[in-house]
Amino acid sequence: SPLHDARPVEGMHRLSELILCGKINLRGDASDTQFCKAVETVTGLALPFDANTSIANNRFQLFWLGPDEWLLHLDLQQLETTLTALRADMESIHHAITDVSDYFTVLTLSGPQSQEILASGTPLDIREAHFKAGQCAQTLFGHASILLWRHDAQSYRMQVRWSYAQYLYTYLEQSIQNTEALTAFNQQ
After folding, report:
1. Residue 186 phi, psi dihedral angles, 5° rounding
2. Mean of the pLDDT values across residues 139-163?
3. Which residues does residue 136 pair with via DSSP β-bridges, in sequence order?
4. Cα separation of the two ends of the chain
5. DSSP state of 8
6. In degrees rounded to 5, what are phi and psi of residue 7?
7. What are the DSSP E strand ranges found in the chain?
8. Exposed e or buried b per residue across 21-37, where buried means at least 16 C-beta atoms within 10 angstroms of its C-beta
9. Percent of residues, the chain, with pLDDT higher than 70
10. Which among 65, 95, 121, 149 could bridge 28 via Cys, Cβ 3.0 to 4.6 Å?
11. Tens digits of per-residue pLDDT, 79-137?
12. Are 47 and 30 within 8 A, CB to CB?
């Protein structure tokens, strides 16, 4: 893990790296019923076709990244089996399947002012009226490219390249400290 020595932030707000999970980038023609059926057969999930959406079941989470691109998160223990099954089911279909597990890590941020903390570093409008639970978007946070998704009303997850993980973690950690200090000052 790129953040193996980072201490989780615990308090009014929480920040930590999630346990390493498998990540598979899927590319294919959304209008190809065989491609869509193969993904659904292996994962139990129908590909999301609406921009910036994700779907999940108890084993997989599938993110829409573009009109012909999706990202699959899964337990690391299931990675090889899932890759093998996807490749077998798509053998005669035009597609690309890439294991990107060691390219990205995922951070989680939660707490009552998580939205404000994230708004300090991203140009994306993440107000709940515009960015609901289950939605995702590729955006910038500071200088880092991230995949951001709203997990629930007060928590977010961010997938970032390993090379930017420490930068993003430090940025968020400082934003949490600033937000909590300002909140404490305003309550005096």
Report:
1. -70, -20
2. 95
3. 149
4. 40
5. P
6. -80, 135
7. 14-17, 22-28, 54-56, 60-66, 69-74, 95-99, 104-110, 136-141, 144-152, 155-161
8. bbbbbbebebeeeebbe
9. 100
10. 95
11. 999 999 999 999 999 999 999 999 999 999 999 999 999 999 999 999 989 999 999 99
12. yes
Q: Which residue has the tokens 């939605």?
A: 135
Closest CA to 168 of 124, 104, 74, 76: 104
pLDDT in tens, 46-93: 999 999 999 999 999 999 999 999 999 999 999 999 999 999 999 999
Q: Which two tokens stand for residue 156?
A: 């977010």
- The two three-digit tokens of residue 171, written as one number: 């940025």
- Both tokens assigned to 96: 């690309």
Residue 19 CA: distances (Å) to CA of 16, 27, 46, 75, 122: 9, 25, 25, 9, 24
Of the candidates 140, 111, 107, the one whose C-alpha atom is nearest the C-alpha of residue 124 is 140
